């Protein structure tokens, strides 16, 4: 029997791998797990770290010294991730902790984030830098409010993949029907939220079923374990057929040997940047072309997404930090107003009379938010109409800027549709937005 | 891009954000492999230009001589500016009181010297080589970490930090600690050092040295450890896995003379890097408490 399942499992695995077709070799996978201690989130992470031998003796010793045990007497692995005194005292996760582990196939960065609504802003911080979210569902409880909220945030932040782990299968006798029912419920939610890529794995973090080792207690499940899944998943960045280059810093040595050297330093967003390409400098609108691409004092014919390089242009043009160099064939939008989804992080509500600072890429611009168009009920995802955007609220706003802003729409080029909002009175990051519509 | 290219590109991006967002930044240089890696990354970020910041070394006066020699060689070789903040000066000025007794260390005193140096030079951003995999309080810290005018970190009031948009806005007197290699692990750093052929102080490699057994660890037998007749000095083949002050950095028995040996040793190790740091063993929240006071 067992070998038949192994064959099935291998087949499913092979299909999964080909499905994502190793479209681009990606050697770091960043993922977020959100939830509270009771969901088994920390147990799951602890198990991934423990079973991949990523916890060392002195760290285990520290855990044992702290003497925190689960009800069944096993070591409480949550202490590995709850790094702050206040968190250990209260037994909750308040802020994101980053954890690292590595297998032969890949380096993993886990953003271990709080799940409670009170700390949504910290979850948003963790999610914003992740490609994939693991949503844990308690097999006994099914899809609950928190599941919906986290899925909604995954949608808003354009995470590429959702992995639903139906946890605590041991508490429901590893019943397939329980798993299938939850899967059906979740798929309804996913459809409503237009989440494109969702997969499901039945697990028991506590007992180690389908985390790193495959479970013998769920013969009806033929898919990969969580680790197998994470090692093999790959993403297709189908939305971006062009590139953007926000200028961070201008390198001008002005030395006797290099009197005229002028290089624009920055990090490439998107694909296709190459020598000879016609470019547009925004917001000025001046045209030029790429003369050379420099990295580590060597020249390259093209630059990839995410590379930090220095560009040289064919013409002597005036460019400084905050300007964008973009493909002349596919330029960005350049507007003084737009509609955006906003996530609000401060106790003080969004003030429609206040001047805020908008920081997008390397540029900071004064803005006002003259109008709140609607809010989302994060638990039901329904639109509501309310005059105020308060702490942890998510809504749709109209933004008016003091100058023209260079941006793309979230659905076209998410990496260039993002910005944070800073309150100039206290310099705090009070909100984050994604540009959704032109006006 | 492989994972090292990705980490490198991210670190270069962060260093350039510091250059772009701050008036008067500095790079905190300890002479350890992480800050040496930062200097290498800064070359990639800013050459053929000069660094838009000086290197700042907080010298406890109890550094390994090899570290100081290496520091001076690196400054000579890069042509960049070095500022030294001296713990001895802080002691002489009465700003701190030196610990007494056998386990005395200047390690806690350096926070005062650091804050003093930041204030004296008016630095608004200090780049450091701390990594999130080192310690659980560090695992929680943002890449741009705001410190108040007393240098303190408030873990409950960290700014949300989204995508790769870093908010470096501060009030006068505050400063930001910036950690470009936050997402690197110890192994990543060593693999990068190997790939890039980065030079390191000799104490990272196995060498013969007089050592003394203190609190369950081998320490370099130096007068700054307040040696007495109870201490039995032995001659051993050792190396250092992290490089801090001599009073708080323990040696590990090792015959690793090449980078490949070191990488193999780390992969096989069952003790974490900071397991050899006495300063972290004080209590479960030792690092968090020190960070709250203004430590790196």
Mean pLDDT of chain B: 88
Q: Give the low-pLDDT segments of chain A.
A: 13-24
Shape of chain B: globular
H/E series of chain B: HEHEHEHHEEEHEEEEHH
Fill in the CATH topology of the largest domain in chain A. Answer: Rossmann fold
- Please give the largest β-sheet of chain B: 6 strands, mixed
Number of helices of chain B: 8
Give me the CATH superfamily of the largest domain in chain A: P-loop containing nucleotide triphosphate hydrolases
Task: Please state how the strands of the largest beta sheet of chain B are arranged side by side.
Answer: 3-2-1-4-6-5
Number of strands of chain B: 10
Broad structural category of chain B: alpha/beta
Strand numbers in spatial order across the main sheet of chain A = 2-3-1-4-5-6
Q: What is the terminal separation of chain A in angstroms?
A: 61 Å
Based on the model shown, name its key terms.
heterodimer, A: 439 residues, alpha+beta, Rossmann fold, Elongation Factor Tu (Ef-tu), domain 3, 3 domains, 6-stranded mixed beta sheet, 6-stranded antiparallel beta barrel, 8 helices, 23 strands, 21% helix, B: 296 residues, alpha/beta, 2 domains, 4-stranded antiparallel beta barrel, 10 strands
């Amino acid at each position: 029997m067992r070998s038949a399942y192994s064959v099935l499992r291998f087949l499913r695995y092979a299909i999964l791998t080909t499905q994502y077709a190793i479209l681009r070799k990606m050697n770091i996978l960043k993922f977020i797990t959100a939830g509270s201690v009771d969901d088994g989130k920390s147990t799951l992470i602890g198990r991934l770290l423990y079973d991949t031998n990523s916890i060392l003796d002195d760290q285990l010793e520290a855990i044992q010294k702290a003497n925190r045990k689960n009800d069944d007497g096993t070591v409480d692995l949550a202490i590995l991730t709850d790094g702050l005194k206040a968190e250990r005292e209260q037994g909750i996760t308040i802020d994101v902790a980053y954890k690292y582990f590595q297998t032969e196939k890949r380096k993993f960065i886990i953003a271990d984030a709080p799940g409670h609504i009170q700390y949504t802003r910290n979850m948003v911080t963790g999610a914003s830098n992740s490609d994939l979210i693991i949503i844990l569902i308690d097999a006994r409880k099914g899809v609950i409010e928190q599941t919906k909220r986290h899925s909604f945030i995954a949608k808003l932040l354009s995470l590429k993949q959702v992995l639903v782990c139906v946890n605590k299968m041991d508490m429901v006798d590893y019943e397939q029907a329980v798993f299938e029912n939850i899967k059906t419920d979740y798929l309804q939610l996913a459809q409503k939220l237009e989440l494109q890529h969702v997969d499901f794995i039945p697990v028991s973090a506590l007992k180690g079923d389908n985390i790193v080792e495959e479970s013998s207690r769920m013969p009806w499940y033929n898919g990969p374990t969580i680790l197998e899944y994470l090692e093999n998943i790959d993403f297709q960045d189908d939305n971006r057929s062009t590139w953007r280059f926000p200028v961070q810093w201008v390198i001008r040595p002005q030395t006797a040997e290099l009197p005229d050297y002028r290089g624009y330093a920055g990090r490439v967003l998107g694909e296709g940047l190459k020598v000879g390409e016609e470019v547009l400098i925004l917001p000025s609108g001046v045209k030029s072309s790429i003369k050379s691409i420099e990295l580590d004092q060597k020249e390259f014919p093209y630059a990839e997404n995410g590379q930090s390089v220095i560009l040289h242009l064919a013409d002597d043009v005036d460019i400084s930090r905050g300007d964008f160099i973009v493909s002349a064939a596919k330029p960005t939008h350049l507007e003084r107003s737009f509609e955006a989804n906003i996530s609000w992080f401060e106790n003080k509500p969004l003030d429609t009379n206040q001047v805020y600072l908008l920081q997008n890429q390397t540029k900071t611009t004064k803005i006002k938010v003259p109008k709140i168009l609607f809010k989302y009920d994060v638990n039901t995802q329904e639109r509501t109409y309310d005059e105020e955007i308060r702490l942890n609220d998510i809504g749709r706003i109209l933004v008016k800027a003091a100058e023209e802003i260079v941006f793309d729409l979230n659905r076209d080029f998410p990496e260039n549709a993002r910005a944070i909002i800073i309150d100039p009175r206290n310099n705090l990051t009070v909100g984050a937005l994604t540009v959704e519509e032109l006006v | 891009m492989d994972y090292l290219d990705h980490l490198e590109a991210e670190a270069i991006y962060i260093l350039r954000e510091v250059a772009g967002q701050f008036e008067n930044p500095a790079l905190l240089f300890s002479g350890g492999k992480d800050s040496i890696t930062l200097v290498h990354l800064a070359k990639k970020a800013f050459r053929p230009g000069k660094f838009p910041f000086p290197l700042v070394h907080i010298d406890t006066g109890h550094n390994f001589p090899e570290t100081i020699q290496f520091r001076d060689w690196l400054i000579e070789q890069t042509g960049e500016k070095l500022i030294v903040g001296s713990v001895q000066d802080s002691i002489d000025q009465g700003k701190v009181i030196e610990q007494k007794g056998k386990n005395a260390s200047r390690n806690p005193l350096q926070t005062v010297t650091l804050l003093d140096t930041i204030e004296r030079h008016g630095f608004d951003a200090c780049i450091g080589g701390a990594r999130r995999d080192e310690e659980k309080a560090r695992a929680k810290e943002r890449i741009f970490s705001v410190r108040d005018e007393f240098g303190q970190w408030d873990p409950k009031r960290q700014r949300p930090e989204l995508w790769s948009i870093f908010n470096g806005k501060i009030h006068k007197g505050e400063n930001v600690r910036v950690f470009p290699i936050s997402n690197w692990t110890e192994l990543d750093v060593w693999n990068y050092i190997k790939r890039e052929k980065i030079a390191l102080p000799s104490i990272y490699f196995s060498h013969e040295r007089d050592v003394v057994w203190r609190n369950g660890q081998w320490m370099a037998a130096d007068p700054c450890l307040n040696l007495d007749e109870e201490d039995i000095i032995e001659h051993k083949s050792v190396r250092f896995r992290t490089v801090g002050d001599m009073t708080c950095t323990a040696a590990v028995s090792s015959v690793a003379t090449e980078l490949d040996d070191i990488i193999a040793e780390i992969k096989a190790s069952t003790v974490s890097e900071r397991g050899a740091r006495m300063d972290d063993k004080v209590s479960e929240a030792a690092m968090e408490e020190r960070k709250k006071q203004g430590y790196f």
